[in-house]
Amino acid sequence: MAEGGALLRRYTGLNRYRGFESLSLRHLALIALAACAPLVLGCESLEEMVGISRHDRCGHADWRQLGLRDGVMGAADGARRLQEICGDMFQSWPYWEGVEEGLERRPRPPV
To answer: What is the pTM of this model?
Structure first.
């Protein structure tokens, strides 16, 4: 066979052992795209479910009870955390009433 025969066989499809060659970049890109498409679609539905769950939890939250829990535990950043999670649904007045009561119930360290 002439010089460069292997190169000629590779690009003309005459190679019998084609299964041992690596995939071209085009094929790898298509495989990666096919693998990522369901993940992207899944992220959108996951965001919807998180939003629905957040609305449900924040809409039915007992803010006083959450404040009471945070007050007893001494959680200093509880209000900020709930504000970030619930946004406009966060009710600060009942929460802070609960915090005050929780701080009164908080066990005192031994003297």
So the answer is: 0.52
Element (H, E) at 103: helix 92-105
Residues 6+ apart with CB under 8 A from 93: none
Per-residue pLDDT of the chain (111 residues; tens, 9 = 90+): 556 666 656 666 555 555 545 566 676 777 776 776 666 555 556 556 655 667 778 888 899 999 999 999 988 788 999 999 888 899 999 999 999 999 999 888 887
Rounded to whole angstroms, how far apart are CA atoms 18 and 90? 63
76: helix, strand or coil: coil
Q: Could you give the CA distance from residue 14 to residue 6 in angstroms, rounded to a whole number?
A: 9
18 CB-contact burial (10 Å; exposed 0-12 / middle 13-18 / buried 19+):
exposed
